[in-house]
Structure formats: structure tokens, C-alpha cells
TrEMBL record:
Top-rank taxon, per record: Bacteria
Family: Belongs to the ABC transporter superfamily. Macrolide exporter (TC 3.A.1.122) family.
Pfam families: ABC_tran
Species, as recorded: Croceimicrobium hydrocarbonivorans
Keyword ATP-binding: yes
UniProt-recorded name of the protein: ABC transporter ATP-binding protein
């Protein structure tokens, strides 16, 4: 699904150059669940943002679903982002003055999905994330774990092929965090590709492969061994 070849990213601000990524090579297969780990500042978020078409790169090749992303203009990238990628962030990033149901519905508005279809899909997602009983609540009325469940709901409502999660449990206690990880694992079982940035080895144990970054370079890669049940 994803192929990065010799990707480099250089930030320039106030006369300072930071090489955030240096010659990164990475492949993600369809249906895979990949964790990206490494110390703060090693380039994890930059890598995730490039994969999510939220950020550009200076050098290298990025192929997403057989398409060279350097050939696309902003508009074409926006369409891919809306139709094919769901995002989950550490800080939930819900819209404060929209209800749970409205937050989840928002991506379908952007995709101009007809109203009746939107409502039907929102009900399905509320059910999937067990938030039907809170559909008219506002984010401030929810616990962190519930807010992240809504954020996952918003990410999956358009049935994206890929979910990108940046420290999805970073602001949650362990029970809420496990709940979110189980949701991501379940989505992956159902065929959604997941790429997650995390500091937590426990969270990474839900994935199938761990890539480690250090100073903008991939330093190791290993498969996660899942104990047989
Ligand atoms: P991580 O997610 O692993 O903590 P980041 O991808 O956020 O790392 O950052 C990688 C490096 O790039 C860091 O040195 C960071 O300071 C730098 N960086 C990130 N974003 C910017 C930016 N917008 N402008 C300048 N430097 C940045
Ligand atoms: P659910 O029915 O989905 O399990 P609950 O209503 O039982 O959710 O709440 C789960 C947790 O979130 C509880 O610990 C509850 O105290 C907390 N919580 C719910 N609403 C708020 C709120 N407005 N502020 C802070 N914590 C809340």
C-alpha cells in the first residue's frame, strides 16, 4: 500500500536547518498493522504526516496505492486524504461545539454523502464504538477515553483503507488506552491498514511489526510475535 524510498525531510526555520528524516525506506503492506517507535524528536510525526499527505518531502519517492505522490497537486492529495485515510491524534482533535454524532458525521459532509446515508452510517459507527448512548453529548462532557473513541469513529466513518494514529493512547489511562488499542486491532482484523506512532511497547504489541527511528533514520525493524491462544 505504501512505499517510501530514500525519503528525506528538511525543516528550515529561522536560519536553522533540521534534517528530520534522512533516506528513509519503508514499505507497508495492505492490511498490515505497523508501529513506529523511537525517542522524542526522531522524526516519527514527520514520517506519519508525510504518509498522511499532510506534509511534503524534499527528496525521495513516496508511492501510495501504486501512485507516485509527487505527481499530485494539493487538490488531488486532499481527495485521497478524505476518501482513503483516517487520522487519530493524541489530543483527540474533536470539534468542541459539535456533538458526538456531528463530529463523526463531519467527514461525510466533506465527501458530500447524502443526508440519509450519512445518518445511517453515523448510527453504525456509534454502535461500533459503543457511544450510541452519548451521541448528543459534547466533547467536554466525555472522558478522555470516550473522546478518543469518538475520534476513532470519525476516522473510520468514511471506511478508509488506512488509519494513521499518532500516540493514540498518549493522554489516556491504561484501561482507556487498551480499549482504544483493541478497537484499532479489531479494525485491522477487518482489513484496515493501520500505521501508529507510539512510545508504548505495550501498545506496539497490538501491531504486527515495529520500525524504530533514530535521528531521522530507520535503525531496526522487527516482527511482533503474538502468543497463540
Ligand atoms: P517525533 O515525532 O519523533 O518527536 P518530529 O517528527 O516531531 O519527531 O520531529 C523531528 C525533528 O524535526 C525534530 O528535531 C523537530 O524539532 C523537527 N521539527 C518538527 N517539526 C518542525 C517544524 N515545523 N519546523 C522545524 N523543525 C521541526
Ligand atoms: P460509558 O457508559 O461509556 O462506560 P461512563 O458514562 O460510565 O461511560 O463514563 C466513563 C468514565 O468517564 C467514568 O469514569 C466517568 O466518570 C467519566 N466521565 C464521564 N463524563 C465525564 C465528564 N463530563 N467529565 C469527566 N469525566 C467524565
Amino acid at each position: 500500500m505504501i512505499r517510501l524510498h530514500n525519503i528525506s525531510k528538511i525543516y528550515r526555520s529561522q536560519g536553522v536547518e533540521t534534517r528530520a528524516l534522512n533516506d528513509v525506506d519503508l514499505r507497508v503492506q495492505d492490511g498490515e498493522f505497523l508501529s513506529i517507535m523511537g525517542p522524542s524528536g526522531c522524526g516519527k510525526t514527520t514520517l506519519l504526516n508525510i504518509i498522511g499527505l499532510l506534509d511534503t518531502y524534499e527528496e525521495g519517492l513516496f508511492v501510495f496505492r501504486e501512485q507516485d505522490m509527487s505527481l499530485l497537486d494539493e487538490k488531488a492529495k486532499l481527495i485521497i486524504r478524505k476518501e482513503q485515510i483516517g487520522f487519530v491524534f493524541q489530543n483527540f482533535n474533536l470539534i468542541d461545539d459539535l456533538t458526538v454524532a456531528e463530529n463523526i458525521e463531519l467527514p461525510l459532509h466533506y465527501l458530500k454523502v447524502p443526508r440519509s446515508e450519512r445518518q445511517e452510517r453515523v448510527l453504525e459507527v456509534l454502535d461500533a464504538i459503543s457511544m450510541g448512548h452519548r451521541k448528543d453529548f459534547f466533547p467536554y462532557q466525555l472522558s478522555g477515553g470516550q473522546q478518543q473513541r469518538v475520534a476513532v469513529g470519525r476516522a473510520i466513518v468514511s471506511k478508509p483503507a488506512l488509519i494513521l494514529a499518532d500516540e493514540p493512547t498518549g493522554n489516556l489511562d491504561s484501561a482507556q488506552g487498551n480499549d482504544i488499542m483493541e478497537m484499532l486491532a479489531r479494525l485491522n482484523d477487518q482489513g484496515t491498514t493501520v500505521v501508529m506512532v507510539t512510545h508504548s511497547s505495550h501498545d506496539a504489541s497490538y501491531s504486527q511489526r515495529i520500525v524504530r527511528l533514530m535521528d531521522g533514520e530507520v535503525t531496526s525493524e522487527k516482527k511482533v510475535l503474538h502468543a497463540p491462544f
